[in-house]
Structure formats: C-alpha cells, structure tokens
Amino acid sequence: MARSPRSNFLNRELSWLEFNQRVLDEALDPTNPLLERLKFFCISHSNLDEFFEVRVAGIKQQIEAEVGERGIDGLTPPETFRTIRHRVQKMVDDQYRCWRKKLQPELSRNGIRLLDFHELSPDQLQRVQSYYYAEIRPVLTPLAIDPAHPFPQLLNKSLNMIVRLEVAFSGQPLRHLAVVQVPRVLPRLVELPSKKAAREYIFLGRLIGHFLPDLFPGTKILDYWHFRITRNSELYIDEEEAANLLKAVENELHNRRKGDAVRLEIDANCPPDIQNALLGTFRLKEDDLYLIDGPLNPTQLMAIYEGEHLPELRDAAFTGRTNPLLAADLFEMIRERDVLLHHPYESFETVVMFLEQAAKDPNVLAIKQTLYRSGGDRRVVGALMEAVRNGKQVTAVVELRARFDEANNILWARELEEAGVHVVYGLVGYKIHAKLCLVVRRESSGIRRYVHLGTGNYNPTTARIYTDLSLFTCKQDYGEDVTNLFNLLTGICQFHKLRKLIVAPFELHDRILSLIQREIANAAKGLPARIVAKMNSLVDEKMIDALYDASEAGVKIDLVVRGICCLRPEVRGLSSNITVRSIVDRFLEHSRIFYFENGCQPEVFVSSADWMPRNFFRRIEIAFPIEDGQARARIIDEILGVTLADNRKARFLNADGEYYRPKVEDDQPLHRSQSEFIAKTDENALKAKPTGAKARYPQVKLAPKPLSVSR
Fold first, then answer.
1. What pTM was computed for the model?
2. 583: buried, middle or exposed (CB in 10 Å: 19+, 13-18, 0-12)?
3. Domain 503-687 classification at class level
4. N or C: at which end does the chain have fewer Cβ atoms within 10 angstroms?
5. Per the residue annotation, which of 226, 433, 590, 671 is the catalytic one?
6. Residue 149 annotated in active site
7. pLDDT tens digits for 219-238?
C-alpha cells in the first residue's frame, strides 16, 4: 500500500471545526424548535472551549518547541494555527450573529427576555438590589492592580471584569485598573419577577457591573468590560514515575485550572489599550484575542433551555422504550439468545437493570466492569457496591484519565474502594476505553458467564442523549474472551489472541486493514464488495490509504463520520467510490459499526473505537462481531439502512472539506433517521407482548442486495 501525497488528506483541526459548524447550523435551522436551537448554540460554544483547551493548546506548545514536523495534510504547526485562527474568527462571528439576529429576538417574541438595567421595572430594580446585597455582595472581592497588588491568578474559563476607575489624589484624578471575578457559585442568569406572561432574566455580570460603585467607594467608575481566559487543560502525568496514579491525577487536576493561557475573549467595545494590557499579562498575542459582541460564555444560557417553558419550543418529550419482556429475568432472556439494544431509542435502563439484578441475585458470584465516564448517576456504581455487600467478588477498572471527567472518576474510585470493590486503573501507558461487563453466575448446568459489550459509557445520563449499541450474550467464546481481557487489565500477563473480541492496541488496526484488503480481493474476483463504517472520527493515515485503495479497486464505501474526517471523498482516481456523510441531530451519534460485504456473506462488527491513532495504539479498545442472525440483520437493514437513507439531517463531505445538504427532489420522501428510529421503537414496543413467544425482535430479513441510498 503506497503512501498517499499529503494533499490527499484534510486537516484534522479544520475538519473538527467543520463539525462544530454543523452543530451551529442546527441553531440556525428554523425548522428546529427554538429552545433546541438555543441548545445547539450553547453546545457549539462549549465544544469550542474544549477545542482551545486541548487542541489549540497542543499546537501552541508545538510552535513554542519549534516542532517543524508536518501533519498528514502537509501543514506545519504555525500554518495550522493560522488556518485555525482564520476559521475560528469566522465561526465566532457567525455564532454571535446567530444570537443577536436570530435567537435573542425570537426568544423575546416567545416571552423569554434578557434585560439590561435600563429595561427593569421599579419592582424589578428593588428585587435586584435586595438580591445583590443579600446574595452577591458578600462573595465579591474587588482586586486592585498596582505595584502592591499584582494581577490575580484567574481560573480557566472564569468570567471576570476589568474595571477602569478614577481616584482623586492630592486634587488630581488618577486612573487605575481593577479586576472583579464573577462568582462561579452563583447562577449566571438571574431570573427576575415579572407581572407579564413572560420569563425575564438579567446576566449576573451586568448586575454586578451596575453596583460597581458600591465595591469601589470614593472612586469614579469610568467603564468596565467582561473578559475570559481559556487555559491549557491537558494533564501531564508520567505514569511510569507515578507511584500512585490516583494521587498523580488528582494533583495534576489542580494545575489544569492554572495552565498557560491560550485564548482571551473580551467585550468588543473594550479599548485597544486594555486589550493590549490583558494580552501582555497573559503572554498572549493578537492572534489569541477574540472580541465578542454578545454574552461571554453563553453556555450559561442552557439554564433557559432547561427551564420550564412552553413545550412547543422544544422537541417532543421522548423516553427510551424498555421491552416488557426484558423487565423480568434478563439472565433467562440472554440464555435464550443474544440481545441487541439500540440506545437511546431502547432504554439504557435495561443495562442498569442487568447490573442491579446481578448485584442482588444470590447465584451471581462475581462482577467485573470497566468505567470510563460514569457521570453523576450513582446507580451503576451503586449496584457494584451493593454486590459487595451481598458477598460477591467485584472488580472495577476505572479510567482516571477520561478527559474532563477525572475528578468525578476519582470520587467514584474512592467510594468504590471504601465499599470493598477491588479498583484497578488498567495498564500503564494506555487509557481503558473498552466498554465491557462480566457477570459470573452459578447455575444448575454449571458456571455461566454473562457479558455486556457496548459502544457507549456506563452513564445513564448521557445514555439518554447518545446513540449507542449494547450487546448481551452468554456465549462461551465471548465469556472466555472477556475473562481473559479482564485478567490482562488487572494482572500481569501477555496478550494472547482472543476468539471473538478484537483488541487494540494489539491487533485491531491490522485486523481492520485485513478486512479492507479482503474486500479489495473480492472486488478483483468480481464478487460483491462493500464497506459501510459508522464512527465518530476518521484520522488514521494507513486506514485512509487502505480505503483509497479499496475505492479504486471498485469497492463501494459509505462512511458515516460524525466529527473529524481527514479523508477526501469523491476525488477521481483516488476516492470516487467513497461517500462521507455526517449526521448532527437531536441525539449525539456515538455508535461505531463496521460492515463488510464479504462476498454476500456480510460481517458486522461493533466497537468502542474510532479510526484514530489514539484508539488503535494508545487505548484499550474492543471490536466484536455480531453473530446472531437477527441482531446482525437488524443492524444492516434497520440501523445502517435507515442511517444511510437520511436526507434531512445528513450532510455530505466534498473533496474540499466542505459539507453540503443532499439535493432532495420534490417527489422524493424526506427521511430523518433519528425520528424514524423513535417511530420504529414505539412501533416495536406496541408489538412486544409477553406471550411466551421465542422471537424477541421483529423479524428482519437480510437485505437481498447491498445497501443503497439516493444522493
């Protein structure tokens, strides 16, 4: 396989920014309910924060270290930074134009108003004043900036105010600067009493700004401006030198809040001298400055989305269905056949029930589970702790370095250890990203192992908004594989090839490459050759080269890549048989599915891994085959088929790295895959009646021909 020229690859960072643009596009889409548009607007800002904290911070470090190596797209770190700066500036302008011209006026028309002080009624002014003196003033600390008072250490992403004031000294007015930190412990949006049929708010920063004379008595407040610093938030841990990984991660978390500054956001009307002073203070350059014409840190507007507003302003309420047949004895169901669940359309509560049943079942001897992002819902870890109390052997492999969930995972790890769970942190040098749970149960026929494998985290909260797949099985080969993998994670042993599971970093990369090569060989023989791969990101250079080779060998390739995609599709002589689409909709597309035609004998794999170097070589990941005929047919026909037919929320990638909507003819039906999954789940739930019938899924036949979709 020859190495492709660098011009054949899209820049990873720009590709991610195009994903965030698709998120922002949902905020701009007038067919979405208003509060859902507000949600996407907030998410686009939160995403951009993380992009600067991690990706831009890393690029700036490369520039400072004078790293001259080019990426797979051919750009050096300084060239990459300049392209990012240009693209982000346009995105920020689009975001705040969306807020000023679209969202804020429409919110106001629907009775949700954000007021400034001159718009407050006398009653509201009185209430605000009382609230300020009772709740806000006691936690404010005005900080002077002068030789005796150095510039304060400001936390990552905190909202602050730079104040210019004037003090009379010996009859002469002297100008000074001061900083006021907007307290994080208080709601950023303050709801106001209103006699109208409306919900009215004021930003906490504006409220504090009005009362600045109270904080600086005897001075004249000339003006103030909000500003915000984004810092490098990567953790730097030498695992081989760390005697205690948990303690090392915990210590490093304190440094995250004070990492090097990488971005300064400030009110657009801030004068140049203040801008330059702040840039100098944080050792930033003009390219790191973003002037904001709107609220800084608008993610706080999620408080409006989560409030009690008109239901017609948001998507219809949806709760994932639980098949009543699965609510009784899950172990009996799994013995009967493999159980496949499609979340959130089918409720993640079934997975929670599986753990809770295992914790209480007197026949269960042991439970082993990986935990990557467990969230704040304590039922999963609670089930593990209850299992210990019930005398079972329980092991939890907790990944402490799950980015931005480290503190949460440390708390859970400590609580699990105190409850008697055996907690381990996996392998030095590798994040444990695989999602697997093993339940060992004594039955009349002997010891049986029940396994849950998934694409998503054991997090009941995010499972309501992420699309993922779960597989329950008690087949012996899967049980043996998961047992051996846990032994690798918790003990001292060498990896040996497993029967069913394909494990990174040991074999997943080579195995997928071999599956692609098999499709190339089948195409050469005139056999049907097709690849459909659904994932979050596609970055790995060798994998992209293999797909290019397959395309030119005649293999039809459909890629569903939600986020980053460095492959250039639809290039004659390179990727003419490859289409790439991305779906951004109500739920976050998160499942990874790999379909290989295999000469009319399709193989389907489900995985925790994206096709990125980090997943292939720096994480413990798994991919596993779906061997149950009905489950495999369901993935092919119902899940992949519906996904590929989406012409409402899907965007197609072109060779220039831009995304476009597919053209839909007037007589062509519109398909929105997530809405169809909801409808299908409701339909299946109505069909599911506890009659004792063997078939637990609606009968689905394998597609008689390769999957297809109109472009």
1. 0.91
2. buried
3. alpha beta
4. C
5. 433
6. no
7. 999 999 999 999 998 765 55
